[in-house]
Each structure stands twice: as C-alpha cells, then as structure tokens.
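user: can you give me the structure for this one chain? tokens are fine.
assistant: on it. calling the predictor now.
[tool input]
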Amino acid sequence: MSDIAGIAASGLRAASLGMRAAAHNVANLATPEAARQGVVLSSLPSGGVSVRTTDAPADPAAPLDDVAAMLTYRAMAGANVFVLKVADQALGRLLDVRA
C-alpha cells in the first residue's frame, strides 16, 4: 500500500511545483526581466514521477499556455489526492479486518 501512496505523493509534489511555476509566469507577465519557468516531468523506475523546474523561452502565447497548465496541474493534484484518500480508506479497512 505504501507504493501507491508514494506514487500519488510524488504526483502531488509534481502538480504543486507545476502550479507554482505557472503562477510565477502569470504573476510576472508585466515584468520584462522576469524569466519564465517551465516544468520537466519524468517517470521514476520505482514508480511515481520526478519533477524539476527549468527556464522556459519567451512566447507570446505563454499566458494562455500558463492558464491551461494551471488547470491541468489542478486536475492532476485532485486525482492524486483522490488516490491517497482511497489508499488510506483501503488501509483502514484492511486494519479493521485484521483487528
């Protein structure tokens, strides 16, 4: 059961970092010297996801992409929270049966 929780937790961390990067980009639209941030996701051999931020190139369509990314990361966070909740409930039921 801890593998499922670990995978979901890594997805939640990735969603959080993605939302922060997109929010940074939207908040700094009027700041010409602010560097845009991007997020790189990659799968881990043991399951889950690795995430890191990177510099993103300037792009005139970036505000729309950033808003879409925020919505995507929000859905990603919700899905991972749901997985954590179900894993917790399953563990609770398992402990009830064994007690």
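assistant: here you go. The longest strand covers residues 36-43. Residues 17 and 51 are 8 Å apart (CA to CA).
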